[in-house]
Write a structure and sequence with these properties.
The structure is a single chain. The chain folds into two domains: about 1-60 and about 370-395, Urease, subunit C, domain 1 (Roll), CATH 2.30.40; about 60-365, TIM Barrel. The protein is globular, with a radius of gyration of 20 Å. The protein is α/β, with parallel strands linked by helices. The chain is built from ten helices and 21 strands. Strands 1, 2, 3, 4, 5, 20 and 21 form a seven-stranded mixed sheet that branches. A four-stranded parallel sheet has the order 11-12-13-14. A three-stranded parallel sheet has the order 6-9-10. Helix 7 (about 270-285) links the parallel strand 15 and strand 16 (about 285). Helices cover about 25% and strands about 25% of the residues.
Length: about 400
């Protein structure tokens, strides 16, 4: 047994002072305070209070929408390169993530899905590399495309967008060997509601986005099985006070969750505040939408089949420095800190938006919380949200 000691922890629903986390075989067996439970004499004790002032234990962050980082694109990275990306993510507190696709030729997409499925199936056996670096694990695939609106496609190449059919969806599902856990779809497309219903039947988190949908169609999508919304406000029909469209449904429907890119570039801080007030503590989710450029200097990087330029923190289509945004260079720890700054949320509540909320939305019960039976995926934070250490299934201790 391993016992972690810290000044406090966020479950994240509760805060525990003078906290203890008991870990056996990579699984949390108990969470308590020093006053409530004694440490067994044969336990291995890791006392973080000696190493870090004000050490806070929190669940490892889970990013359900990211395209890459550390110079690597998830659709193009080789199996030998993925550990480098996984290590980069872990340094920013991420213990699990959904590699996210970009619209591309179907054959190319299927090849990428097969490689990502290999990585997911190998993930439970990931161990720290020779340098002792912990690796985040891919937990499932997020299909962002090809079922997107041409009008609200963002940077997704129009020639690779297709109308949704169950046949095409099945082809993608089979290439991914059932590891698709999330799918973004524009509900106004012909055939979309049928595909939404089929995907929901397979327990995929169907997310509406990249859409010019009306309010009525967005509601029909939710009734068909959609339960989430992708990077709210971005690549969506703008909110109108008489014709609220898809954003009206996303903000007003208390039964669906939604995510936001809180980098201060994709959405103004004041609008992030509006989003948080609408979705609340339970339904607001942080994502990064990070590209291969995350963690890298200014330059040109790959995003699926297209190239993007990065300058001063902005990611745009290659050759268009003032053009469309093309993903981000955001890291999840920065997103958490931004939430405390943009909206005055406590660190505990901001952590929830990067842990419990995304894992509940995506149906990952063993992740996103510090509780008995959950995987020991843990990040050690400073009082202002800086990452100090990361553990994945107890590894790194």
């Amino acid at each position: 047994m391993i016992v972690l000691c810290a000044h406090r922890l966020y479950t994240p629903l509760q805060e525990v002072q003078n906290s203890l986390v008991f870990i056996e075989d990579g699984i949390i067996s108990a969470v308590s305070s020093r006053a409530q439970q004694e440490i067994p004499k044969n336990a291995t004790v890791v006392d973080l209070t000696r190493d870090f002032a004000g050490a806070i234990l929190a669940p490892g962050f889970v990013d359900i929408h990211m395209h890459g980082g550390a110079g690597l694109d998830v659709m193009r990275a080789s199996p030998a390169e993925l550990p480098h990306l996984n290590q980069f993510l872990a340094t920013h507190g991420v213990t699990g993530y959904f590699p996210t696709t970009v619209a591309a030729p179907l054959d190319q997409t299927c090849q990428a899905l097969e490689l990502l499925a290999d990585a997911i199936e190998a993930a439970p056996d990931l161990k720290p590399s020779n340098g002792g670096k912990v690796q985040a694990r891919p937990l499932g695939i997020h299909l962002e495309g090809p079922f997107l609106s041409h009008k609200r496609r963002g940077v997704h190449p129009p020639e690779y967008l297709v109308e949704p059919t169950v046949q095409i969806f099945n082809r993608l599902w089979q290439a991914a060997r059932g590891h698709v856990r999330m799918m973004t779809i524009a509900p106004e497309l012909p055939g979309a509601l049928e595909v939404i219903a089929e995907a929901a039947r397979r327990n995929i988190c169907v997310s509406i986005g990249h859409s010019d949908s009306t309010l009525e169609i967005a509601r029909a999508a939710v009734q068909a099985g959609a339960r989430h919304a992708t990077h709210t406000f971005n690549a969506m029909r703008p909110l109108d006070h008489r014709e609220p469209g898809i954003i009206g449904e996303v903000l007003a429907n208390g039964d669906i969750s939604a995510d936001v890119i809180a980098d201060g570039i994709h959405v103004a801080p004041e609008v992030v505040q509006i989003f948080l007030k609408a979705k609340g503590l339970e339904r607001a989710v942080l994502i990064t939408d990070a590209t291969a450029a995350a963690g890298m200097p200014d330059g040109t990087y790959q995003l699926g089949p297209i190239q993007v330029d990065v300058k001063n923190g902005r990611c745009t289509i290659h050759g268009e420095p003032d053009g469309k945004l093309a993903g981000s260079v955001l890291t999840m720890d920065k997103a958490v800190r931004n939430l405390t700054q943009f909206a005055g949320w406590s660190l505990q509540n901001a952590v929830r938006a990067a842990t419990l909320n995304p894992t509940r939305a995506a149906g990952l019960p063993q992740h996103g919380q510090l509780s008995p039976g959950a995987e020991a995926n843990i990040v050690v934070l400073s009082p202002n949200g800086e990452v100090r250490r990361t553990f994945v299934r107890g590894r790194g201790l």
